C-alpha cells in the first residue's frame, strides 16, 4: 500500500471518529409527530417572523430567539415572544440566526424546570418555515391574529398560575 493512500485512510478514520462530526440530534422513531399530536403536546403553537437571535444570559447553552408573532393557534397572547433553542445541532437546536426576517411555524413548550421560564423549541418538533408547513395549516387552519401586545413569555406563565 502506498504511503499517501495509507495516510488518507488513517485521516479519514480519525475524522469519522471525531465527536464533533458525530454529534447529531436524535429525534427518535416518532419523528415527525403528526400535526394534531404535536399541537396537543405543546404549550404554544404560533406563526412568527424571526426578529433577533442572541445568546441567552441565564441559559448560556441556548439562543434567545425573538419572534414577531403573526398568528396564534394556542398559548400566545402577545405580539413579541422569546423562544429558546439549543445552540448546537447535536442538542437539536434550530439555527434561527440563519433565518432572520423569515416567517416560521413554531411549536414550543414552557420550560418545566423554571415555572416562570421561557418557551423552548427544538428540531424534533414540527417547528419549520411557513413555506414547508402546508400540512400544519391544512389540519389547524389559519392562525388567528394576536389580540394583545405586551411582554413575551410572561403572558404564557399567567395562563398556568
Summarize the structure.
By secondary structure, this protein is an alpha+beta fold.
Oligomer designation? single chain
Number of separate structural domains: 1
Radius of gyration: 19 Å
Estimate percent helicity.
10-25%
Largest sheet, described in full? Answer: 5 strands, mixed, barrel
CATH topology heading: OB fold (Dihydrolipoamide Acetyltransferase, E2P)
Report the CATH C-level class: Mainly Beta
Parts with pLDDT < 50 across at least 5 consecutive residues: 3-22
Distance separating the two termini: 70 Å
Shape: globular
H/E element sequence: HHHEEEEEEHH
Instruction: Using the 3D structure, state the CATH architecture.
Output: Beta Barrel
Structural class: alpha+beta
Strand content: 25-35%
Biggest sheet, spatial arrangement of strands:
1-2-3-5-4
| Mean pLDDT across every amino acid position | 81
Strand count: 6
Q: Please, how many helices? A: 5
Write up what this structure looks like.
There is one protein chain. The protein is α+β, with helices and mostly antiparallel strands. The chain has a single domain (24-159), classed as Beta Barrel (OB fold (Dihydrolipoamide Acetyltransferase, E2P)). Helix content is 24%, strand content 27%. It is built from five helices and six strands; from the N terminus they run αααββββββαα. The protein has a five-stranded mixed beta barrel with strand order 1-2-3-5-4. It is globular. The chain starts with a helix and ends with a helix.
Amino acid at each position: 500500500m502506498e504511503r499517501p493512500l495509507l495516510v488518507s485512510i488513517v485521516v479519514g478514520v480519525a475524522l469519522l471518529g471525531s465527536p464533533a462530526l458525530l454529534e447529531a440530534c436524535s429525534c427518535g422513531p416518532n419523528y415527525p409527530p403528526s400535526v394534531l399530536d404535536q399541537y396537543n403536546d405543546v404549550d404554544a403553537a404560533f406563526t412568527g417572523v424571526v426578529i433577533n437571535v442572541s445568546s441567552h444570559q441565564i441559559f448560556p447553552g441556548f439562543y434567545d430567539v425573538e419572534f414577531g408573532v403573526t398568528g396564534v393557534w394556542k398559548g400566545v397572547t402577545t405580539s413579541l415572544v422569546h423562544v429558546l433553542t439549543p445552540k448546537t445541532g447535536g442538542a437539536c437546536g434550530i439555527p434561527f440566526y440563519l433565518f432572520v426576517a423569515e416567517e416560521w411555524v413554531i411549536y414550543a413548550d414552557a420550560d418545566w424546570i423554571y415555572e416562570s421560564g421561557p418557551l423552548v423549541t427544538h428540531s424534533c418538533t414540527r417547528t419549520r418555515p411557513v413555506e414547508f408547513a402546508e400540512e400544519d395549516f391544512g389540519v389547524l387552519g389559519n392562525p388567528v391574529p394576536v389580540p394583545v401586545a405586551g411582554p413575551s413569555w410572561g403572558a404564557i406563565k399567567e395562563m398556568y398560575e
